Every structure is written in C-alpha cells, then in structure tokens.
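Milestone 3.1: sequence recovery, worked example.
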C-alpha cells in the first residue's frame, strides 16, 4: 500500500467513531469536552428517535431535549454526527424512514456515516451475511448460529427493508473491526464498494476499541506503530462503556489521549478522513479475491481476539 501524505504536514491520522450505547449527557459531555480541549474532532453516532418498541439500551436519544441540545452543540463545535439506526430496537421500514427523516430535519442533512446497532434486525448484510461462501458456515459455527439469517434490511420486500434508503442517503457504513491500530494496514482498500452487497455505497473498517479497557490497551501497545507507519486509525468505541467512573474520566485514558494530542496527527472526523482517502486514491470495487482475503482476515481476528 502506498503511504498516504496527510494534510497540513501531519504524520498520521486518528479519529473515533463513538456509538451512543449507555451514554448519558452528563458522562458524554465529560468525554467530549476533554477531547475538544485537546484538539480532537471525532464522530458521534446517535439514535434520532425513541421508537415505538422497548429500548435495548439505556443510552440517550435525540427525542430527549437535553440530549439533542448537547449533540447539536457538539456539531457546532466541529464533531461529526452519524447514524446508529433509527433507535436502539428493531424498526420496520416506516420507522427507519421516520428516523432518517428526523435526522435530516435535526441536523440539516442526511448522515454521512453510520454503524449498525447490534440489537437491530434491520441491519443490512449483517450477522452471517457479513461474509460469503464457506466463511458463512465458519461464522455461524463460531457464533453458535445466534446471528444466522438475522439481518433483513437488504431483503427487498421484507418489512424491515430499507436498502434503497441507505443507498440514497448514506455514504459510508462501518463493517469489519481489527486489532491493528492502523486501520488502513488492516483494511487498505477502504473506503470500498462490494458488488455482492450493492445497497451500501461504501464500507469502511475500524480498529477495535469497543470499551475503555480495549481502547486503552490499543493505544498503550500500538501508538508508536501508528505514527511510524504514517497510518490512519478509525477507533470504534462506546464512550458510555467505562470511560467515566464515579463521575470522573478514566485517568489512564486522559493521559493516553493527552500524549497522543502532542503528536503530529490529523485529528478530524471519520467522514473527513474517508473523503480525503477517496480524493487521493479513489474508491475500490472489491474483486472476489479481495473480498475473500478481507473476510478471512476478519474471521481469523474474530477467533483470535473477538473483533467486532
């Protein structure tokens, strides 16, 4: 892979995609104010509506006025607001469209990027549909079949189908997570289009840091690797999972991020990085061989370290 020349003379790129699971305004503001003061501008996903069903998570939604005002303020401060399905439970097509329309009304545009919520059956090409051929059988064996035929957002005619809306409205969708801090080293083709999954415009990979413990471990052990490789990290996490304890930010997280902020990194939101990569290199349409290699690497990491 040809080394990227990052803007503004920066040596590497680092950002975060944060899902809203278990995140309150009080604790979330502690994390984001800290990041903003250090110069980081990252991506925060939201649930635009509360939904008609039973929530799967106690994180806030944009139906809560205090939460919405906080998220609007984050947008004003330069953070990207992304999409995490319409709400935290499974939605039919009508509710998903309502969520997308509400997102556009609240934030002035369609979401540029999104990640699927684990508890939603309207996810597209998800569960065992993330992989192809014999790898699907391997995945189902590894997960004891709990995600077999559970994803319906791409199935035209199903009540949860919304693939046409995704293709029309959303540019980038998160897919495979890897243990390597350099997301580009693990997923060098991103952003990429997969013709076997045509209703998603472009997929992107991420580095696995789903909670405070794993986030810290990746930075502690691999920060120098990211810098030396002039790489790009899209860290996937949930700032509602362990970053604030007893009302205080995790001190190790604070130390690690403060040290990282002093390096010559490009600290911009996910879509800004993906747009830049597209401008510099274009996008890749996966061949069968490229898809096989990418899926196999992810499955191996799922066996080895439990990647998302």
């Amino acid at each position: 892979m040809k080394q990227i020349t990052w803007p503004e003379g920066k040596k590497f790129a680092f950002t975060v995609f944060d899902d809203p699971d278990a995140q309150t305004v009080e604790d979330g503001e502690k994390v984001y104010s800290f990041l903003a003061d250090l110069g980081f501008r990252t991506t925060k996903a939201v649930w635009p509506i509360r939904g008609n069903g039973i929530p799967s998570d106690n994180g806030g939604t944009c139906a809560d006025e205090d939460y919405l005002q906080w998220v609007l303020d984050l947008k004003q401060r330069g953070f990207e607001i992304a999409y995490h399905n319409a709400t935290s439970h499974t939605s039919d097509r009508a509710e998903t469209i309502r969520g997308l329309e509400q997102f556009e009304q609240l934030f002035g545009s369609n979401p540029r990027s999104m990640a699927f919520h684990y508890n939603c059956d309207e996810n597209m090409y998800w569960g065992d549909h993330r992989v192809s051929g014999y790898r699907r059988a391997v995945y189902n064996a590894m997960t004891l079949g709990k995600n077999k035929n559970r994803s319906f957002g791409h199935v035209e005619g199903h009540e949860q189908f919304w693939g046409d809306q995704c293709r029309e409205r959303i540019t980038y969708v998160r897919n495979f997570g890897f243990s390597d801090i350099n997301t580009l080293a693990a997923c060098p083709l991103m952003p990429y289009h997969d013709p076997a999954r045509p209703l998603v415009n472009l997929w992107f990979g991420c580095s696995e840091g789903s909670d405070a413990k794993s986030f810290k471990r990746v930075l502690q052990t691999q920060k120098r690797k990211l810098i030396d490789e002039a790489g790009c990290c899209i860290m996937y996490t949930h700032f509602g999972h362990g970053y604030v304890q007893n009302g205080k930010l995790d001190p190790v997280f604070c130390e690690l991020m403060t040290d990282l902020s002093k390096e010559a990194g490009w600290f911009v939101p996910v879509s800004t990085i993906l747009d830049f990569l597209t401008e510099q290199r274009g996008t890749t349409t996966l061949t069968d061989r490229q898809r096989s290699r990418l899926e196999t690497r992810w499955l191996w990491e799922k066996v080895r370290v439990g990647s998302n």
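The first strand starts at residue 12 and ends at 18. The domain at 9-305 is CATH 3.20.20.370 (TIM Barrel).
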